[in-house]
């Protein structure tokens, strides 16, 4: 009886807080797919076929955001967004020994608080979608069997391999005639290797903890039928490697990206180009690698008010022909603005010179070996709230 009284009291307090904060918004995505992947991998132990159900092409999540008007054009804002694994009780690939984290159903996508001024823009601190992620997410209309994302991964370009930026500060200018600029900075403040998370842009891998400074700058233009963004990212060598040579992921590098899209009404067309340059060359399959690039595009065509068809293609290449190519077609039927079903089929091929790609989106066990190919099909249900 006492436990029931305590539970009711807690629920009442939570309800009162929610009523007092009428500007808090709860939002999310529920997205589940059935998948089938096939490769012609040759190495024993590498997965050749995978079928099952998984988080979808868009990705399931739940988020909370709030806004308080402080007067004089100044506002306080916050955002907490958690990723959800809807078909099982874990959200990370690997073991606790490999990731240094407890496997569970929720992971923090974003968590930040900031101040926004009508005249001076926004400054915020916490964990953000990295500008590379923002760039990549707007370079393509879909995830899943996604050639633009995968071909970026082939070259190790950060906007694919690092979705979020932690221990960070961000500044965004006000929007003028559709144009705004955002800057992000972070340095890993954690020296304990067990706290490192390989999904974080600011955490370096390996057995020695390091502090890797990250600088990102993005310029956006969104007005009318035009959407465009230019991206610059600089990664400094970790400052406390203790005399250990940096790994490939820790190398100093510079990255550049340019994307654009135009909505003609009868079709939306987009294109993207990204380039990575390492300060010092590394060896990939016995050859020097210092520069890699990826380019791709998409076209989305509506058929009536309910059906959308999308074609996406991409190609990547490095110094010694490391790279690959791929394409994907996606169809989406809209029951409403919030609920739809979709299906997609794709094909990807790695160059013989390329090292194997070991992870495709959420499907960590589905890899493609050098010189091999992957075909895939997935169909899912998507609901936003």
What order do the SSEs take from the amino end to the carboxyl end, as H and E?
Answer: HEEEEHEEHHHEEEEEEEEEEE
User: Which segments are poorly predicted (pLDDT under 50) over 5 or more consecutive residues?
Assistant: 16-21, 91-103, 189-209
Number of helices: 5
How is the main sheet built? 16 strands, antiparallel, barrel
**What share of the residues does DSSP label as strand, in percent?**
over 45%
| Rg | 22 Å
Share in helix: 10-25%
The 3D shape can be described as globular
Topology, number of strands: 17
Structural class of the helices, strands and pairings? mainly beta
Name the strands of the widest sheet in spatial order.
1-3-4-5-6-7-8-9-10-11-12-13-14-15-16-17
Q: Give the end-to-end Cα distance, rounded to a whole number of Å.
A: 36 Å
Mean pLDDT: 80
Structural overview:
The protein has 385 residues and is mainly beta. The chain has five helices and 17 strands. It has helices at residues 2-20, 96-99, 131-137, 147-154, 158-161; strands spanning 25-39, 49-55, 61-71, 74-84, 106-117, 121-129, 164-172, 179-187, 213-223, 226-235, 253-263, 268-284, 287-303, 307-318, 323-334, 339-350, 373-384. It has a 16-stranded antiparallel β-barrel with strand order 1-3-4-5-6-7-8-9-10-11-12-13-14-15-16-17. Strand 13 (287-303) and strand 14 form a beta hairpin. The longest helix has 19 residues, at 2-20.
